[in-house]
Amino acid sequence: MNDWQRKSPLDWETYVNKMVKVAAIEKHEYEGWVLTVDPVSASVVLATFLENEKVSISVVLGHAVQEVEILKEGDDEMKQRLSCIFAPEESKAYSPEEEEKRKNALKTWLETNHIPVTEQGESGRTLCVAGVLTIDPPYGPEECSSSNEIILSRVQGLIQGYLEKQQ
Amino acid sequence: ATMPVPVPVGVLRLPRGPDGCSRGFSPTSPRFQALLGGDAVAAQGARAALRQRYLRGLAAARGRPTRFCLRAGVQVDAVFGAADVEAVAFQVDALRTPLGVQAAALLRCADVLAYSFLL
């Protein structure tokens, strides 16, 4: 285990949304915006924006990392851009206003049916149901996550029914 | 003939473990607190957020042509399949090797220095 792998999650978090240069073993070097550091393997996930609107993702395995040097901080626009990179494909079909409308409509429907729901996450785009299930944009059954399978399948069924009634 | 009523099985209740919570892992146990350091709650929150983003990244990689940088300057191309929980290996499809294309293969994480793909 190297020094990088021994860092705490709070330490690794300080590198997220920063442009860094990663020095790896065998004289490899990688540069890019840090999307995340996997706490299990300490692997650094970097994003590089190419000219043709494409994004190149590089993952440097934790055991290969020698040093990570911070080159610059990302501004709010960059942070927003980075947080959207791994978002599910479908959310790109909705505009921010449409997304907000869908979120509020679903939240209201859940509250009307006496299901506790709150907003959380960066910019409040994620819904949290009963503290155990989260719903990301665009708020369909596929965007639900929970560690409880029973609650997950129940809520997915409810949302499926709700969306079908909307049509 | 009627079905015989099943005899209830006796429930064996084990004594409580040293941490006080007989279910085993307790996030508030002194042992877990010591593992995470003083900032246990914040550290665990950071850990969860980092891991979630990483898992979403793995999901995004699935099915995409990926270049793997192995040791000694070796590079191979393949289609990303999956990663396991403990970061022991990657499963890939259509691995291009000097001996031909392997339909499916496992790459050991210890052999991989880095990998990259386009979104």
Can you walk me through this structure?
The complex is a heterodimer of chains A (167) and B (119). By secondary structure, chain A is α+β, with helices and mostly antiparallel strands. Chain A folds into 2 domains: 3-84, SH3 type barrels (Roll), CATH 2.30.30.100; 96-165. Chain A is 29% helix and 31% strand. Chain A has 4 helices and 9 strands. Chain A has helices at residues 9-13, 76-84, 96-112, 149-166, and strands at 18-24, 29-37, 44-49, 55-60, 65-73, 117-120, 126-129, 133-135, 144-146. Chain A has a 5-stranded antiparallel sheet. Chain A is elongated and about 60 Å long. The termini of chain A are far apart. Chain B is α+β, with helices and mostly antiparallel strands. Chain B has 2 domains: 21-61; 62-117, Roll (SH3 type barrels), CATH 2.30.30. Chain B has a 5-stranded antiparallel sheet with strand order 4-3-2-1-5. In chain B, a hairpin with a 5-residue loop joins strand 2 (75-83) and strand 3. Chain B is flat. Chain B starts with 29 loop residues before the first helix and ends with a strand. The A-B interface holds A 8-10, 12-13, 16, 24-26, 28, 30, 35-41, 43, 45, 50, 54-64, 85-87 and B 36-37, 39, 42-44, 46-47, 49-51, 53-54, 56-57, 59-61, 69, 71-73, 85-87, 109-110, 112-119. Chain B: It comes from Uria aalge (Common mure). Chain B: InterPro entries: SMN_gemin7, SUZ-C.
